[in-house]
Amino acid sequence: VQCLEMTTKRKLIGRLVPCRCFRGEEEVISVLDYSHCSLQQVPKEIFSFERTLEELYLDANQIEELPKQLFNCQALKKLSMPDNDLSNLPTAIASLANLKELDISKNGIQEFPDNIKCCKGLSVVEASVNPITKLPDGFTQLLNLTQLFLNDAFLEYLPANFGRLSKLRILELRENHLKTMPKSIHRLTQLERLDLGSNEFSEMVRIHFSYQGYTIGKLRQLRYLDLAKNRIETLDSDVSGCEALEDLLLSSNMLQQLPDSIGMLKKMTTLKVDDNQLTSLPNSIGSLSLLEELDCSCNELESLPPTIGYLHSLRTFAADENFLTELPREIGNCKNVTVMSLRSNKLEFLPDEIGQMTKLRVLNLSDNRLKNLPFTFTKLKDLAALWLSDNQSKALIPLQTEAHPETKQKVLTNYMFPQQPRHDEDYQSDSDSFNPTLWEEQRQQRMTVAFDFEDKKEDEDNSGKVKNKATKTTKKDKCDENTTKKRGRKQQNTTER
Fold first, then answer.
1. Cα(422)–Cα(419) distance, integer angstroms
2. Domain residue limits at 40
3. What is the pLDDT at residue 217?
4. What does DSSP say about strands 16-21 and 373-374: parallel, antiparallel, or unpaired?
5. Pairing state of beta strands 373-374 and 410-413?
6. Are the C-beta atoms of 300 and 279 separated by less than 8 Å?
7. What residues does the Disease resistance R13L4/SHOC-2-like LRR domain cover (predicted)?
8. Which residues are CB-neighbours of 434 under 8 A, at least 6 positions away?
């Protein structure tokens, strides 16, 4: 009763529906919420409402077992009991013929009873984070199932007739031990979200979407596909048939190339192919006109296709840890990019067109071979963070004008140029030298980003003053860097002691 009063105060118990009966008026409870009540067993007062109870929430308690009386609540439509200490799901659950939603995630349940097939109305099952090793054949008789979440379990395979669940729209099987999928999987044509990340698939064909003429391209409703952290070496070219696909996550696989057909995914907004073995990106990638996020970090890219300039919707671009020696001039056409990271490449110069990316706010160029920056950087008025070194203590270090020794053109530089290749044995990590509190204080003090550079119309005297000011700033920044390095070495010595 006390817990009942607590949940009433939380305004979650709600929906007290008056009902007139021959014996007079009485209140009928249809929703009960006992979440976060430190319960060790299901409250007995629940059984007083077994005729009318439709939703029961027992989230985040210490309940170890479910009493048989609970399954007399045959009007129950939603049973939610995640984050408890349940070790099994009673066979009595078969009596809940009206059950539509079941949440038993974050427990210790090892298997579903086969007679769960009697819960014909089940539409949503959330059973993630349980040591479930297999699904019973009866599970595939839940023909009204539209959403199934079985992430972070111990599944090694699915029932052969898993494809009978043809109404599935969301299927999440992340972090299991799956090596293949049953051939019947091709029948899941209504899938909108498919998450198979962190499993043990070695190639797309092993997922059997190419069985008897059915390819992954038959999943025309699919909007989200996650195959990250597997062992996939090739991506089926028929993926182009997934015309509704918006998010494609292929991180941490063994891909050596992407098919040209990927450019036909016109609705794509997110493409992640980081941590693979790609040596190039297809020219067709420029056809992804709605792409907002592209991550191709940790590959073996030596160049980027000029067609990247057609990605006018791109907002976030990462190509860290590759072998890029230069950027295509067309990248300047990506004018909506706000965050761009090119850390740990072999860039020796940047194209002037980068000054056209006027919405850039964060740019990471650390660990490259740059000798200076193009003068067009002065147009990047929104730039709030420019990283030129991994152990840089300031997000944006002032730049000053200098004449290029060969071309005599104006360039921007500071004491961090020219960049030198990093030797791992001399490298100080961010944790050794970066002070987040100090950085935040400095960030708040910077209302706008200003570059120290000479105006074309200034006379020689004024020009000299600007140079002196720039020199003073440079010396101050050198002091800041030395202080930061000393702080890093001090922390390192303290750790060693």
1. 9
2. 1-120
3. 72
4. unpaired
5. antiparallel
6. yes
7. 214-298
8. 391, 392, 393, 484
DSSP-derived 3-state class of residue 310: helix
Residues paired with 318 in a beta bridge: 295, 341
Report which listed range, 142-146, 177-181, 219-223, 489-493, is most confident.
142-146
- Is 417 exposed, middle or buried (CB count within 10 Å of its CB: 0-12, 13-18, 19+)? middle
Whole-number Å distance between alpha carbons of 187 and 200: 22
Helix (H) or strand (E) holding 264: none
Residue 28 covered by a domain: yes
Asked if residue 21 belongs to a domain, the reply is: yes
| For residue 303, pLDDT beyond 60 | yes
How is residue 389 annotated by DSSP?
A: S
| Percent of the chain predicted with pLDDT > 90 | 66
Q: How many CB atoms lie within 10 A of CB 39?
A: 16
Residue 345: DSSP 8-state: S
Which residue type, as a one-letter code, is found at position 447? M
Peptide bond into 282 cis (omega under 30): no
Which pair of tokens denotes residue 84? Answer: 């408890």
What type of residue sits at position 460? E
Mean pLDDT, the chain, integer: 84
Q: What would the two tokens of residue 251 be?
A: 């991180």
In a domain, 263, yes or no: no
Helix, strand or coil, per DSSP, at residue 27 = strand
Domains in the chain, number: 1
Q: Rounded to 10 degrees, what is the CA torsion of 207, 212, 218, 219?
A: -30
Pick from 190, 223, 220, 185: which is nearest to 204 by CA? 185
Q: What average pLDDT does this structure show over 262-267?
A: 96
- Single-letter amino acid code for the residue at 212: Q
Q: Pairing mode, if any, of strands 270-272 and 170-172?
A: unpaired
**Residue partners of 212: CB distance under 8 A and separation at least 6:** 183, 186
Which residue from 339, 330, 281 is spatially nearest to 306, judged by alpha carbons?
330
d(CA 41, CA 65): 7
- 178 by Cβ neighbours in 10 Å (0-12 / 13-18 / 19+) ranks as buried
460 vs 59: which has the higher pLDDT: 59
Residue 9: pLDDT over 50? no
Cβ atoms 366, 386 nearer than 8 A: no
Look at the alpha carbons of 236, 238, 240, 244 in this order and tell me if their dihedral is positive or negative: negative
Strand pairing category for 400-403 and 410-413: antiparallel
Helix/strand/coil for 104: coil
Q: Work out the average pLDDT over 404-428.
A: 78
Asked if residue 252 has pLDDT above 80, the reply is yes
Phi first, then psi: what are they for 412, rounded to 5°? Answer: -110, 140
pTM of the model: 0.79
Provide the CATH number for the domain around residue 42: 3.80.10.10
Q: Which has the closest alpha carbon to 304: 243, 345, 364?
A: 345
| pLDDT higher than 70, residue 269 | yes
* 298 inside domain: no
